[in-house]
Design a protein that fits this description.
The chain is built from 6 helices and 10 strands; from the N terminus they run E-E-E-H-E-E-H-E-H-H-H-E-H-E-E-E. It has about 230 residues and is α/β, with parallel strands linked by helices. The chain has a 6-stranded mixed beta sheet, with helices on both faces. A hairpin with a 2-residue loop joins strand 9 and strand 10. It is globular and about 50 Å long. The protein binds adenosine-5'-triphosphate and magnesium ion.
Amino acid sequence: MSLELDAVTLTYPDGEGRLTALDDVSLTVPPGRLTAVVGPSGSGKSSLLAVAATLVTPDRGRVVVAGTDTAGLDAAGRAALRRTSLGIVFQQPNLLPSLTAAEQLQVMAHLSGRPPKSVRDRAMDLLDAVGLADRAARRPHQLSGGQRQRVNIARALMNEPSVLLVDEPTSALDHERGAAIVDLLATLTRERGTATLLVTHDHGHLSAAAETITLQDGHVTIGTPA
Ligand SMILES: Nc1ncnc2c1ncn2[C@@H]1O[C@H](COP(=O)(O)OP(=O)(O)OP(=O)(O)O)[C@@H](O)[C@H]1O
Ligand SMILES: [Mg+2]
């Protein structure tokens, strides 16, 4: 299931007028594809992810997540769609300090009411996929920055999302560790078939992406809009 934005425009209140954060942006990310989004600070990258995540409603345009046109959804419907179809990874891992790596993942799935044993098995499978099977019992302060970001990514995949949205996951890491995280995202995208949109400021990471979209002042300048 894919992610599709069609002619999306988003403005924010700005003094007397409006600031255009996204200007007629169209893109399609098919399943199993990693699309990178680059562009200068303030060009609209995080706004693009917020719209795709249904956290912000655009002024105009269509946002279709895993076949569902989000325009028809109320707040509860959008929350349900986020729970079932979207995995979101922000810059800072936001892990809960008192929980182990395995528990961080299990909390997500308990929210969606799955049987405990399958939740535990799935958490271990995902920790293994991100190379942390042997760190499952560790709490965030016992993990490195890169390991915490791996837990964050595994957590986002817990409910088998069709669409994975990732905002600058490597900004707290050095280039080498950042590249390893992006390679991991590319592998998970392929193996799990997610439609992945990755915001990055590090052009060295773009080789892992199947496609790159460049934003400038809210519109796509380079890339292949749908
Ligand atoms: N909640 C908001 N209210 C008003 N303006 C906003 C809001 N969020 C973002 N903006 C403005 O919208 C524009 C795009 O911001 P956005 O956060 O999407 O940029 P970005 O490309 O993610 O930048 P960075 O690389 O610095 O994270 C900027 O001019 C920003 O100041
Ligand atoms: Mg941003």
